[in-house]
Design a protein that fits this description.
Helix content: 40-55%
Largest sheet: 3 strands, antiparallel
Strand order of the largest sheet: 1-2-3
Distance between the termini: 45 Å
Number of helices: 1
Order of helices and strands: EEEH
Oligomer: single chain
């Protein structure tokens, strides 16, 4: 596994976790983090709705 960082054409920074041997793969850590935050927020909203 390797952590790679780069800027795209819009000057946004990306952090990728890359790895593999015969089957290379890549995960955009910024996208995964943003998705996780949204999912946790949605889950907290559901719990707050049910608790009310």
């Amino acid at each position: 596994m390797r952590l790679q960082t780069y800027r795209d054409e819009n000057c946004f920074r990306h952090f990728d976790l890359t790895g593999g041997g015969g089957h290379p793969w890549s995960i955009d850590l910024v996208e995964v983090t943003a998705s996780g935050i949204l999912l946790v927020g949605f889950a907290c909203a559901l719990v707050a709705l049910w608790a009310h």
